[in-house]
Amino acid sequence: MTTANSKDLKNNLPDWTRNAVFLYGPKKGGTTLVQNLIDGTPYLLMFPSEVKFKWLIDYDNTENLAIKYLELSRVRGKKWPNFNTKLYNDNLNRLSNEKRLDLKALLRHDAYNLYLSVADKPDMLKMWGMKEVGGRPDSVIEAFRQRFPAGKMIFILRRPIDVTGSKIRSVYKKRKGSKKLKFHEIKQYVNQPYDILLNQLIYLNDPNIHFVTYEHLTGPNPSEALSSICDFLNVPYNQTFEKTTIFGEPIVASTSTEPVKYIFKNKKKWSDGLKWKDRLAVIYYSSKTQRKLKKKGHNLKSYDDILQIIISRNKKDKR
Asked: Residue 152: in which H helix or E strand, if any?
């Protein structure tokens, strides 16, 4: 039986580092919320932020990989409860000198580095997880599959126009409202969620990929969505999953909608907080994108139909 201390003798790493879980969805699609909700179980160790997998794959098997990994790290230097930042940084600096490691090995070593740096360690680890957003969906998905063939993926879906609205609000918040968005920017924010959604739906019948929707997670029965994730990962469900944590410690998560400590009911409309010109541009480009997809032969169902398909799929898998 695999425990947190069982070792892969060849790499001198615990066996659980072989078992990767990959969260993937659009920017502002709810990946941070899912990441922070499934953290805290003794069976799974989550990276607290993106590892920038979509960029690192271009450096795999090059002598610059380890240095690039260090440069892109969003864990280095950060302070969280229950986490020894100095120990993590020291180990990561040593890891950056390992030019013989490929990306798969580097990720496994850094997952173990996380484990060593957590003060109150999970003692029943089966796997570790990371999240990624955006990028070229087909490339990102297949790159993970190549490196972790037995790995599990969780796709987070969200209504494309809601993703666009959240992205625009986020951009204005960063710019502090001083600079207006240009039409080509809004077009990009409209197109990317559709691109990711189409690529995700290709894998709808894949047994090693679980689908969860933002709407189900923030709807009337979030425990049903979380329970389906636990069933997929083969870990027991409890109410710990309904609170946002990092390394098992409660935190206020900064999500696409609002700072939260637990599952919330999302009441925002996509258009809330948007200027009227931005709203018109979103509606125009959304309609244009949907027409283009139909011309290309994409039989994209309405998002409400997709929601029902995924909920039914998860119920079927549970049986």
From this structure: strand 152-157
C-beta of residue 130 within 8 angstroms of C-beta of residue 39: no
pTM: 0.90
Element (H, E) at 313: helix 303-318
For β-strands 152-157 and 209-213, DSSP reports them as: parallel
Instruction: Find tokens 């201390």 and name the residue.
Output: 5
> Structure tokens of 202?
């290709």
Per-residue confidence at 2, pLDDT binned at 50, 70, 90? very low
Cβ-contact 177, 273 below 8 angstroms: no
Q: Taking the domain 7-318, which CATH number applies?
A: 3.40.50.300
CB 13 within 8 A of CB 97: no
pLDDT, one tens digit per residue, over 233-269 is 999 988 778 888 898 888 776 555 555 555 555 677 9
Phi, psi at 248, each rounded to 5°: 85, -5
Give residue limits of the domains in the chain. 7-318
Cα first-last separation, the chain: 26
SS3 243: strand
Q: Measure the CA–CA gap between 21 and 152, rounded to whole angstroms.
A: 5
Q: What are phi and psi of 148, to 5 degrees?
A: -135, 75
Contact 226/217 with Cβ under 8 angstroms? yes
